Amino acid sequence: xxxxxxxxxxxxxQTSGDLAAARRVLDYAGEAMTALGVxxxxxxxxxxxxxxxxxxxVIVSGMGKSGLVGRKIAATFASTGTPAQFVHPxxxxxxxxxxxxxxxxxxxxSWRGExxxxxxxxxxxxxxxxxxxxxxxxxxxxxxxAADVTLLLPQVREACPMGLAPTTSTTLMLVLGxxxxxxxxxxxxxxxxQYRDFHPGGSLGRALIxxxxxxxxxxxxxxxxxxxxxxxxxxxxxxxxxxxxxLVDKTGALVGIITDGDLRRNWDRDLRASKAADVMTYxxxxxxxxxxxxxxxxxxxxxxxxxxxxxDPKDKSKKPVGILHIHDCLRAGLQ
Length: 335
What we know:
The chain is α/β, with parallel strands linked by helices. The protein has 2 domains: 3-190, Rossmann fold (3-Layer(aba) Sandwich); 211-331, Roll (CBS-domain). Helices cover 46% and strands 16% of the residues. The strands form 3 sheets. It has a 5-stranded parallel β-sheet with strand order 2-1-3-4-5, with helices on both faces. The protein has a 4-stranded mixed β-sheet with strand order 6-7-8-9. Helix 1 (3-39) packs across helix 7, helix 2 (42-52) crosses helix 7 and helix 3 (65-79) packs parallel to helix 7.
């Protein structure tokens, strides 16, 4: 067989082997998560109850790969409304036990439940009556025997060819941590606005910015009475530099708008004789205070306008409470 054909056959064989390994990992993980879903019982609810009752923080701990998973779980808790901190069990034995208070609860992870480094944390929790939630696969293990709430992981096959390296087992711990975080979010009624408060940076934060976060308030509004002269309306427009002026009725409700474009289209009018109502656009497009700023920006782009007066949906008077300019959205990083 020519060398080129041998090389091609070897590459194809390698690809086949790689894909087989990848699919084995995924298959084992899928089987394990299905087994975990079946195994969950009232202990899961007890764990959620215990975590909700915490007046301090949830202290997450684990050794080795379990500890790395624990760090992620603690980060997920903290970002979704449950104050949490990871404490390394070995460091805990050398002073970091001081980070654990009687107001806290412990969530400890160990596949076999026998990690020696966990012993001081377990002892400390029992001594000071700190709620202990144990996550392990062996119900007779030291960790689960000491735990106030036990989350038993099903026995699963590791995807490692030797069956030794933590693969499927750590995936299970990670998924269980996410399940706890989501259940806690739902119990707390954790809102999108709260999520945004914890994620002010990056695309997540920008996606959740509301119109009320970017708009200019009532003190900056360019407004004139609907019965005003065109000259008076232009004076109000010039003072605020938004390129528009809103016209309001006697109750303060927004009834129309005049923009730079409206003035250009009526440039030959006699300013002394014209009324603002002669050139204004009635029933102008508006934004809501609770509207996503990205949605308002998309609307402005679609309608080819550069500003929107803002109304409070809870106020039926239709009095404008702010104004949003397209530049405000762009400065906030919205696109």
